[in-house]
Amino acid sequence: MTLKGKTAVVTGSNSGIGLGIVKALVEAGADVVLNSFTDRDEDHALAEEIGKAHGVKARYIAADMSKGDDCRALVTKAGSCDILVNNAGIQHVAPIDEFPVDKWNMILAINLSSAFHTTAVALPMMRKAGWGRIVNIASAHGLTASPFKSAYIAAKHGIVGLSKTTALETAGQSITCNAICPGYVLTPLVEAQIPDQMKTHNMGRDEVIKKVMLDRQPSREFATVEQIGGTTVFLCSESAAQITGTTISVDGGWTAM
């Protein structure tokens, strides 16, 4: 499943799931463009380190995924985009009637609209190259729902729909578009929540993970960033050339219920 000679742009990729995807792509030989909204020395150093470690070209481009112009500029600055992974996302939890309007707008912008903007610029590049892969990181919440997460769930359902439309518009062009729907993934952000949950529920680590955090994940195990990365690489491979317009759940059985 070599991706040597391909350039991948991964949004929201200086940590967590995005960084896991980047590492999987470079291990398959792809050149990569990392992204987040910050523009720190350590961001650029991370890309340089990844590139040297794997013998590929890797660079970091700062872009605010809440701004359409920044999203489009990211892909333009990348110069080429054979693989686009729309991963950037944020979350806020509140009842609908108390949900802050600014949070709603920000979540929709980053979690949904950013993928529209990056895809709009990437598609002409892919068509010119005669090959392309778009992988949108949705969520189990792109296929089901939970209370108090209205904006996130609306955006992730939208990502699934956008993926299907993109697939139909590119069918027969050697371009595919699919959505990965992870359940709970053990990222540094999730890891940091465990001690607070332990205090709140007066439970040990293993108990709070299985009974609270993974209550809806039948496997009672976190998915890993490596698994999401491996799924992404598969969708970019020739083995997946006829997989388009669909969702792949990496959720320990969550959406099987």
TrEMBL record:
<keyword id="KW-0560">Oxidoreductase</keyword>
<comment type="similarity">
    <text>Belongs to the short-chain dehydrogenases/reductases (SDR) family.</text>
</comment>
<dbReference type="Pfam" id="PF00106">
    <property type="entry name" value="adh_short"/>
</dbReference>
<protein>
    <submittedName>
        <fullName>3-hydroxybutyrate dehydrogenase</fullName>
        <ecNumber>1.1.1.30</ecNumber>
    </submittedName>
</protein>
<dbReference type="GO" id="GO:0003858">
    <property type="term" value="F:3-hydroxybutyrate dehydrogenase activity"/>
</dbReference>
<dbReference type="InterPro" id="IPR002347">
    <property type="entry name" value="SDR_fam"/>
</dbReference>
<dbReference type="InterPro" id="IPR036291">
    <property type="entry name" value="NAD(P)-bd_dom_sf"/>
</dbReference>
<dbReference type="InterPro" id="IPR050259">
    <property type="entry name" value="SDR"/>
</dbReference>
<dbReference type="InterPro" id="IPR011294">
    <property type="entry name" value="3-OHbutyrate_DH"/>
</dbReference>
